[in-house]
Amino acid sequence: MAVLKNKTGDAGEPANSSNSKKILEHLKKDARIFLIVLLGIGGMLIYTRFFFSHLKTTGYKKEYWLVKDSSKYIDSNRITTTDTLKIIYHAQISAHIDSTAKERARALKNHTNPDTISYKNIDYHRLYFAYNSAFLVWIALGAISFAFALASLPVLIMSIRNLILQFKIKWWTMGFITLFSIIIGVLMYQTDKIGTFMGTISVCRQFHILVDNPDYLPRIVMVEMLVGLLGFAGQMIVNAAINKLPETIAGLNEIEQKDIGKEFLLLRNQLKFFLIIDSILIVFSVLTVDAFIRAILAEIQVNVEILPKNLVYLNGLMFTFYLAVIYIPIYSRLKDKGEQMLNDVSEANQEGNLKSITAILRIQQTPIESLQVVISILAPVLTSLVPGLLKIQ
Fold first, then answer.
1. Residue 250 exposed, middle or buried by CB count within 10 Å (0-12, 13-18, 19+)
2. What is the spatial distance between Cα 191 and Cα 199, in angstroms, rounded to a whole number?
3. Rounded distance, CA 278 to CA 295, Å?
4. How far apart are CA 383 and CA 389, in angstroms?
5. Mean pLDDT comparison of 22-26, 53-57, 332-336, 341-345, highest-scoring range
6. What is the pTM of this model?
7. Spans of all domains in the chain
8. Rounded CA gap, 387 and 78, in Å?
9. Is 347 helix (H, G, I), strand (E, B) or coil?
């Protein structure tokens, strides 16, 4: 019995029901796009509003700190070695303070009420970003980074979910990947703790500058780091999905071979996608650290290099190492798997019916695609060099 197309869909399903499902599917995709946009814009607004309402703006201030040598090699009861550390807050506006003092002294000398001088008081809140524009740059970079992390979150979750369902990744494999990602996160977080120098957050807390409560800063970093760890987890899921590919495509029919080619191409594209997401997050992290250091140095002036700028280069090198040490082994394994699946296929067949699939399995990248991967891996260390090369102050 013939089935009329205008009345029924596939397998006797009513056409109206099929159209409703298509409309519902389109609405779901549109809703995801709207969610991504709202998370990005909302994250940026929340970040900027929060820090603009928690600025620590103070006036010109000078302190002398007593530094005592407590080395175990010196008998503190007999010999005491001390030094003085001079610290100046907001050193760049000291000229304004001196000018105001001179004007007040001149007014008193002329028997004039100094309160009548219109510019006797400096509104530090209004002048704040005039002499500490680096802090404004830090807020902007931090807001963009936070917004990008929030906007990437649903995309990463959906990508990981689709890989798990399509390749039927087992729960114990996901447990191992979760544990591995947590270990990577702890190691990355501890990277900034290595050394005896004061960190940026410690300086803000010690000197009471920039923000009212610096303890919020690590929490924001943790949110961005969790999103970045999803990218690392995604790469590990790609590694687990490689096990689901067959040993060879020889003996499979044409439809099965095309399906394997599609799955292999999906894994390759997803691996590069996760790498790019992590690379962008880390690039913003390096730029944010550099801007934060410059903001601190604009806020205070000390007679020692309290925050060496080489820390930015160190962070760039460390994060480049993390990107490379995770991506390269998985990419190498995927490439070897593609070659393995072609081992039992004759060269003549590879140049004939399987030419398109062979090109996919052998990962024949264009120079631009290769350059994208190289730049994505080296982006953190290259970014750390930019401020120095451009003489950004």
1. middle
2. 12
3. 25
4. 10
5. 332-336
6. 0.75
7. 132-389
8. 48
9. helix
CA angle 165, 27, 231 (to 5 degrees): 40
Residue 62 has pLDDT above 90, yes or no: no
The per-residue pLDDT for 8 is 47
Cα 133 to Cα 371: distance, rounded to the nearest angstrom: 34
Residues with Cβ < 8 Å from 21, sequence gap 6 or more? Answer: none
What is the DSSP-derived secondary structure letter of residue 61? E
For 204-255, the pLDDT digits (tens) are 887 778 888 888 888 888 888 899 999 999 999 999 999 998 888 877 788 8
CA nearest to 257, candidates 363, 147, 359, 128: 359
- 98 token code pair: 């001196």
Is 230 in contact with 156 (CB distance < 8 Å)? yes
272, two tokens: 């590069």
CA atoms within 13 A of residue 378's CA, in its CB half-sphere: 9
